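Bug #77: duplicate submission created two jobs. Keeping one. Sequence:
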Amino acid sequence: MGTEIFEEMYQGVPPWEIDGPQSEIVHLAEQGAIRSPVLDVGCGTGENALYLTDLGFEVAGIDIVPTAVEKALSKAKKRSSPATFLVWNALQLQELHRRFNTVIDSGFFHVLPDKKRPVFVKSLASVLDVGGCYLMMCFNEHEPGSWGPRRVTQAEIRESFKQGWVIDYIREAIFDTNLGARRCKAWLSSITLADGHVMK
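Kept job's structure:
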C-alpha cells in the first residue's frame, strides 16, 4: 500500500489505533526486553512510543505519513512527553545519524513489498548497535481472510534476517485492534544484530 492510502486512513481512525500501546509492547517492556534508546519505526500516532517514554525510555518515532506524525506530536505536547517524532522514510535510517539499542516495529514490516525488505534490513542495521534488538510484530499466515496487510511466514522472516543477525525467537502474538473484540494473529520476532555486517 502506498503512502497516499495511509494518509487517507489517518484522516480517520485506522483499525490499529487503540488509544494506548499494543499489549505485546507492554509485555516486552515488563519483561525487560527493551533497552534505551529506542526507535519506533512506523510509529503511527505514537502510542507505543509515548508509553515507553512514560516508563523512562528515550524514544524517537518515525513514520512516512505526515498526518500520523502530526497526531503523534500533538499527543506528545498535550501529555508533556519528551518523545520525539519525525516524518521519515524507514528505508533511509542511516540518514538519522543516530544509534539505538532497540528498534520496535508494530505493523511496519508486513507492508513492505518483497524487493524492499533487503533495503529495510540494511537500513535497520545502520542504526542498531551491535547486540541491539529489533522487536517486530507482523500479521502471520494464520490470520484468516485477505483484509488488511499481507501475511508473513516465519520462513520469510528468517530469510530476510539470515545474514548478520541472530533470530532469538519468533512466537505467536496478537495485534490489538479497535474492531470490537477482533484481535489479529501475528508473529512477534526478537532479532539481534550480530556483527553489523548485513549483505545488500
